Amino acid sequence: MSQMWGAVNSGQLEINPESARTVASAYFRFAEQCDAWIDAARELRQISGFGGIESAKQLQRGFATKAVDLGEVLLQLKSATLSMARAHLTAADILGEADSLNAAAIKAVHPW
C-alpha cells in the first residue's frame, strides 16, 4: 500500500476518474462487509452457556478475547480498504471524494 501511495503522491500513477470510481466502489462494498463482520465479532464477545466450573469460565474468557482481537483486525482491514479506495480516487485527481474518505477512514479506526 505504501508503494501505491508513493506513486500517487509523486504523480507516477494516474487513473481515469471513471475507473477510479469503479475500483473505489468495490472497496466501499468490502468495507461495508467488514462492518457486518465487526458487528458479528461484537456479538461473540458475550457468548454464554459454558457452565459454572472454572475451566468453562476460562474457555468463555478465551473466546471473548479472540472476538475482541478479531474485531480489532477487522477494523484495521476496513481502514486499509478505505485507504486503497482513497488512493485510487486521489490518483484520479478526484480530491473532494478522497477527502470524504479520509474522514470515513478516521472514524473506522475507533476502539470498541
Provide structural commentary.
With 112 residues, this protein is an all-alpha fold. The chain has four helices and no strands. The protein has helices at residues 2-10, 17-44, 54-91, 95-108. Helix 1 packs parallel to helix 3 (54-91). The mean pLDDT is 85.
Distance between the termini: 25 Å
The total count of helices amounts to 4
- The low-pLDDT segments are none
Largest sheet: none
Specify the overall morphology.
Answer: elongated
Radius of gyration over C-alpha positions, nearest whole angstrom: 19 Å
Overall structural class, as computed from helix and strand content, comes to mainly alpha
Which strand-content bin applies to the residues?
A: under 5%
- As a percent range, the share of helical residues equals over 70%
Task: Provide a concise account of the structure shown.
With 112 residues, this protein is mainly α.
Task: Reconstruct the topology from this structure.
Blueprint: H1 2-10, H2 17-44, H3 54-91, H4 95-108
Helix pairs in contact: 1-3, 2-3, 3-4
Q: Which features does this protein show?
A:
elongated, 112 residues, mainly alpha, 4 helices, 0% strand, single chain
